[in-house]
């Protein structure tokens, strides 16, 4: 247990304790969310204490909520009663045992198991004039005092609640496979031979901030000249709620002035580095979910797409190589064109080393 995160309600009656705020999705399983609520029964006035874990899609700022519309849609929510303690109480986890030693007899443990089809924590980068919380997918653990777990007619005052935002994250798998390969042949007007382009990546997974090596092979069987090569990386963001919409944004692009003459071959490896720092002005770009105002990076590739029916925001990337072939003869530019080849690439963060120091940290939001 590296840290203990604590949030106390405004009236001081309940306090929420978590051992961590990042929970790892391993595709075929997700870490259990377990914690403890400290309850002072003297301040309950006969009410009960509940905890919920919610995964929600936020598609508007809270300060826009002026006509009773909700700009937040719950993708999944689970509620449990922690006080009075239910008769069928589950056994405590090792983390809860440690927390209960700190909290004492007033500690009430809770446990949530997230389903496999929930998305990871992702935010959509706001524009320069936007204010308030960013759109995206977030996870919230909230303890509250109420008569019932979920009564829409019951008004729960803010002073009777305490909440912590957590993150559901994925790390790059330990085994990195050989990268993908793709090739295409294209013929042009007024020619009977093609330009053949093949691209390949050195490996399947790249860490955020690392250069991506793209090997390009060109066999130019025409009488035309290849005058430049562009290597770019695109982020594909699929928003899967009522329907599925996919948006594409270029996050990295570089042109190389390499030429390939008529009836000749060419092979070279190019490197590009997609960075969030170079895309700060792109509204709607997907970035990894953050806690408070800490630094983040481009959103990691969502693992498990195609293997399970996921909801929320799903992210993938592709490397695109555009080879520009010049026109020639009397028709000039009319006979020139581009040859485009694409391969998928996975961008992720490596799994960090385990941290062993222990301390108590009050948490914001």
Automatic annotation (TrEMBL):
One GO process term, biological-process aspect: visual perception
Molecular functions (GO terms): G protein-coupled receptor binding
Xref: PROSITE patterns: ARRESTINS
Start and end residues of each Arrestin C-terminal-like domain: 191-352
Official protein name in the record: Arrestin-C
Keyword annotations of the record: Sensory transduction, Vision
Entry function: May play a role in an as yet undefined retina-specific signal transduction. Could bind to photoactivated-phosphorylated red/green opsins.
UniProt xrefs under SMART domains: Arrestin_C (SM01017)
A GO-annotated cellular component: photoreceptor outer segment
Family statement drawn from the similarity comment of this UniProt entry: Belongs to the arrestin family.
């Amino acid at each position: 247990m590296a840290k203990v995160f604590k949030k106390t309600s405004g009236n001081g009656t309940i306090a929420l304790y978590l051992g961590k705020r990042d929970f790892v999705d391993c595709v075929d399983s997700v870490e259990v969310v377990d914690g403890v609520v400290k309850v002072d029964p003297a301040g309950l006035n006969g009410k009960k204490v509940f905890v919920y874990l919610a995964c929600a899609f936020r598609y508007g700022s809270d300060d826009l909520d002026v006509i009773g519309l909700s700009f937040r849609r719950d993708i999944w929510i689970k509620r449990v009663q922690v006080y009075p303690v239910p008769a069928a109480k589950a056994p405590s986890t090792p983390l809860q045992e440690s927390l209960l030693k700190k909290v004492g007899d007033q500690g009430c443990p809770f446990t949530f198991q997230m389903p496999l089809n929930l998305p990871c924590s992702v935010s959509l980068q706001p524009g320069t004039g936007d204010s308030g919380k960013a759109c995206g997918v977030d996870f919230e653990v909230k303890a509250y005092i109420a008569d019932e777990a979920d009564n829409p007619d019951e008004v729960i005052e803010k002073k009777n609640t305490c909440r912590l935002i957590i993150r559901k994250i994925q790390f790059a798998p330990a085994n990195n496979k050989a990268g993908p390969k793709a090739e295409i042949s294209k013929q042009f007007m007024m020619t009977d031979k093609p330009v053949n382009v093949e691209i390949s990546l050195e490996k399947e997974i790249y860490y955020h901030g690392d250069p991506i090596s793209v090997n390009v092979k060109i066999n130019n069987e025409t009488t035309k000249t290849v005058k430049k090569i562009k290597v770019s990386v695109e982020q594909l963001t699929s928003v899967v709620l009522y329907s599925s919409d996919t948006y594409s944004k270029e996050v990295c692009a570089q042109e190389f002035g390499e030429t390939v003459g008529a009836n000749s071959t060419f092979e070279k490896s190019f490197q590009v580095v997609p960075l969030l720092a170079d895309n700060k002005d792109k509204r709607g770009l997907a970035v990894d979910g953050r806690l408070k105002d800490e630094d983040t990076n481009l959103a990691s590739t969502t693992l498990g797409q195609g293997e399970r029916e996921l909801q929320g925001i799903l992210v993938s990337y592709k490397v695109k190589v555009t080879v520009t072939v010049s026109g020639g003869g009397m028709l000039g530019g009319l006979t020139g064109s581009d040859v485009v080849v694409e391969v998928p690439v996975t961008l992720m963060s490596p799994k960090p080393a385990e941290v062993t120091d222990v301390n108590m940290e009050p948490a914001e939001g």
